[in-house]
Task: inverse folding
């Protein structure tokens, strides 16, 4: 059998984000194929392998994005000053026009942007399925393979239209039977549970105000029978809190508990408005949170109680959220914003720079159930690595490289490896032509908006 090719990254500072918080001022990582073979201080003991010169750089685990809506890349900049419910009602008629081709273009643009900002693993929550749209989940899976990111698409769904008391218009919701059939098909076609999987599927009814209790229960049963994870939006805004109080007589978190939607196989997006009882319940059940600070600020949704969640032991990762509520979708900006938001309400010791980096790496891996495979730089783990260039004028004089990464200007990537494959080099995505992708995105957005009137 042919030995796996070896690659050495040498001379860089390293933040391993392992359980001991091991760091090296100047160290090396040896990669064999798609696995990390060694990490340590000083020069690598291997001299005859291809090398990436890491001098002036910081090596971290690749960043893990735990919540996104890739299709929204072609609806950025709309409803820029709206609340969540206003934003949704403005954009639903536009999103009703998406199809297989537009979703593939949008996802390619969004995934390339994530790669350029250090992301190696991303989820996606796709819940809009117009009847004539085609294979939308398949389109974004093709895009993820083209860009080269590790991908966790979530087969989303909505079955509670406006005529039945929900928020979305009736022409973008599906029937319960159609959703369950499509969900089972997505798992059968695409879910790969292997250790080094590049593609895992989750089930993700959209939100309490767009799905029925039956859909929540049936999706949970199907997911657990199939061994896949569960995801949904929760407690994002006060409007959602008011909706749940009126419709179900309880808070959003209590509603989830009634439906059997707490557990180590579940993660919620946002979770901004949680009381102490909800945090305790999530901690005791191992339920995860995708904290989306930039999007929450963009929509004025509020500030999540991240410090309290962490103290309680709730698994917390970070997400950029949909590109229509976070136009930059820059994964490296999320740990900085998470830190700033936490300190804005809790003081300067509410979160430190290394905790922020943990949220973006091993925290996200834990939320996705992949902490044994990704999220830290350790022998035997997958070679998902981000090499950040910190020898720039913007970072000169910042002694601590982790502080420079988290609090300084977003640095360029010297290299990004996903599963041992080079996806970004010297700040440029090497797997797709971003200028071509950008032109296609602009045309797709113009056509979509024009069609919606």
Result:
């Amino acid at each position: 059998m042919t030995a796996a090719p070896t690659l050495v990254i040498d001379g860089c500072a390293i933040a391993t984000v392992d359980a001991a918080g091991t760091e090296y001022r100047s160290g090396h990582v040896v990669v064999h194929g798609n696995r990390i073979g060694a990490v340590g201080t000083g020069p690598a003991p291997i001299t005859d392998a291809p090398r990436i010169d890491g001098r002036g750089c910081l090596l971290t685990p690749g960043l893990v994005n735990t919540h996104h809506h890739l299709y929204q890349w072609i609806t950025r900049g709309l409803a820029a000053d709206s609340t969540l419910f206003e934003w949704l009602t403005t954009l639903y008629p536009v999103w009703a026009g998406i199809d297989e081709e537009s979703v593939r273009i949008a996802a390619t643009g969004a995934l390339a942007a994530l790669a350029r900002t250090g992301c190696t693993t991303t989820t996606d929550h796709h819940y809009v399925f117009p009847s004539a749209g085609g294979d939308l989940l398949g389109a974004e899976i093709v895009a993820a393979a083209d860009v080269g990111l590790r991908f966790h698409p979530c087969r989303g769904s909505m079955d509670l239209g406006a005529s039945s008391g929900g928020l979305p218009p009736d022409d973008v919701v599906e029937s319960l039977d159609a959703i369950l059939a499509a969900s089972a098909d997505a798992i059968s076609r695409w879910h790969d549970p292997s250790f080094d999987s590049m593609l895992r599927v989750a089930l993700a009814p959209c939100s309490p105000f767009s799905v029925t209790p039956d859909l929540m229960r049936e999706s949970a049963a199907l997911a657990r029978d199939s061994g896949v994870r569960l995801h949904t939006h929760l407690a994002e805004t006060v409007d959602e809190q008011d909706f749940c109080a009126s419709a179900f007589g309880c808070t959003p978190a209590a509603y989830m508990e009634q439906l059997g939607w707490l557990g180590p196989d579940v993660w919620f997006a946002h979770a901004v408005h949680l009381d102490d009882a909800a945090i305790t319940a999530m901690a005791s059940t191992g339920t995860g949170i995708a904290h989306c600070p930039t999007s929450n600020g963009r929509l004025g949704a509020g500030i999540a109680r991240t410090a309290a969640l962490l103290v309680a032991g709730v698994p917390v990762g970070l997400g950029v959220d949909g590109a229509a509520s976070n136009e930059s979708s820059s994964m490296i900006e999320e740990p900085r914003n998470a830190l700033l938001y936490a300190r804005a309400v809790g003081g300067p010791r509410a979160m430190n720079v290394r905790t922020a980096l943990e949220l973006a790496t091993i925290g996200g891996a834990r939320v996705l159930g992949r902490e044994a495979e990704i999220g830290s730089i350790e022998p035997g783990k997958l070679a998902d690595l981000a090499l950040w260039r910190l020898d720039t004028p913007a970072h000169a004089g910042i002694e601590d490289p982790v502080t420079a990464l988290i609090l300084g200007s977003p640095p360029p990537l010297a290299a990004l490896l996903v599963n041992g494959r080079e996806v970004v080099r010297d700040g440029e995505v090497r797997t797709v032509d971003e200028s071509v992708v950008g032109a296609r995105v602009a045309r797709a957005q113009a056509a979509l908006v024009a069609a919606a009137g």
In short: The first helix runs from residue 84 to 95. The chain is about 35% helix and 20% strand.
